[in-house]
Recover the amino acids of this structure.
């Protein structure tokens, strides 16, 4: 299928289909907390989660269900293998999640809305129990998502609306693997499972940017580990390595754009002038991506960037999943395998009196000092 060039493609199979919504679990499990955020939103989320749970069937049964395609059953077996591998070899926790399967009526599970200030690299955030402040809201009702985005645009925000095919309740409920999350190839399925298990294992409250980038690292590196060491599957090993390479290249591009935008938004300019320069900078960034970064890609995971569809909400949404990926990789390179790297990062963040990024920087300083 020809990629849609009218807007940027989703950033990666795992990241683009993922949304963490622990508030869904709370909508079902802890009704007393409804007053902490929009009651109607959380009630709807809880109702939709209950409907998902009603659709579940054990994966052990689903893999023998001839009403499902052979490709789908093969991917379900892969979910089981990836979950067991990640628990056994990487030390990740799945709890009761990904032991069941739910077939959904549509390919898109939810629409996710995010918003940002038009002339600052600053999210609009919403607060939820457990996870703290997050820079997105997910909607099972697509009209509600579009209405919120329109309302935010009317208030002057940049907005970004994207589809998602999976979410996590962080172990509060026994999340099934959903059929929309199985649309990709084998590598993307394993990336998704390990990404979500990373969230269940470790999710510092209020640190969504760190959580998503960390899970992106573990999901991709874990898929490499699974196919290269676990299965010795040469073709998928190469695909997983190429995807991780491309994801890091993509992350470098976004990191490289930030300083230019910060410098522009730090100026005192009339809105009309600021808007014109902002658009020019997005066009220049898209051209630089095409000329400098896209030729480095190996797997064809990422498409062209349409500068007219880019804004601050989109840019921050990419940074959400792609911040300092090379730094996570550097910790991996100085560790005795992925499990050791994950343990080091989790321990450093847990012991940090500052924040997770400072803890990561300290690990890198220790690596440099060790030579």
């Amino acid at each position: 299928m020809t990629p849609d060039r009218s807007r940027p493609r989703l950033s990666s199979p795992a990241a683009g289909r993922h949304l963490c919504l622990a508030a869904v679990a709370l909508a079902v499990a802890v009704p007393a907390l409804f007053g902490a955020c929009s009651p109607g939103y959380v009630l709807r989320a809880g109702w939709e989660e209950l409907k998902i749970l009603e659709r579940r069937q054990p994966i052990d049964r689903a893999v023998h269900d001839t009403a499902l395609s052979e490709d789908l059953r093969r991917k379900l077996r892969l979910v089981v293998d990836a979950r067991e591998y990640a628990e056994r070899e990487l030390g990740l926790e799945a709890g009761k999640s990904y032991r069941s399967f739910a077939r959904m009526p549509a390919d898109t599970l939810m629409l996710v809305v995010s918003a940002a200030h038009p002339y600052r690299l600053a999210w609009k955030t919403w607060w939820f129990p457990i996870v703290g402040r997050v820079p997105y809201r997910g909607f099972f009702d697509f009209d509600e998502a579009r209405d919120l985005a329109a309302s935010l645009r009317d208030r002057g925000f940049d907005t970004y609306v994207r589809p998602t095919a999976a979410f996590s309740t962080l172990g509060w409920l026994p999340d099934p693997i959903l059929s929309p999350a199985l649309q990709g190839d084998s590598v993307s399925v394993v990336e998704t499972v390990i990404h979500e298990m990373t969230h269940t294992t470790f999710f510092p409250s209020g640190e969504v940017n760190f959580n998503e980038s960390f899970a992106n690292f573990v999901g991709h590196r874990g898929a490499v580990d699974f196919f290269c060491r676990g299965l010795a599957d040469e073709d998928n090993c190469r695909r997983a390595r190429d995807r991780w390479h491309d994801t890091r290249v993509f992350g470098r591009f976004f990191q490289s754009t930030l300083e230019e935008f910060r410098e522009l938004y730090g100026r005192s300019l009339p809105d009309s002038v600021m808007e014109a320069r902002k658009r020019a900078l997005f066009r220049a960034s898209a051209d630089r991506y095409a000329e400098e970064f896209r030729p480095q890609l190996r797997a064809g995971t990422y498409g062209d960037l349409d500068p007219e569809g880019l804004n601050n909400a989109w840019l921050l949404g990419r940074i959400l999943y792609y911040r300092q990926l090379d730094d996570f990789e550097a910790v991996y390179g100085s560790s005795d395998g992925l499990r050791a790297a994950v343990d080091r990062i989790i321990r450093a963040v847990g012991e940090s009196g500052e924040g997770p990024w400072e803890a990561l920087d300290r690990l890198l300083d220790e690596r440099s000092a060790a030579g």
Summary: Residues 1-37 have pLDDT under 50 and may be disordered. Strands lie at 18-20, 56-58, 100-102, 110-116, 126-128, 132-134, 137-139, 158-164, 166-168, 177-178. The longest strand covers residues 110-116.
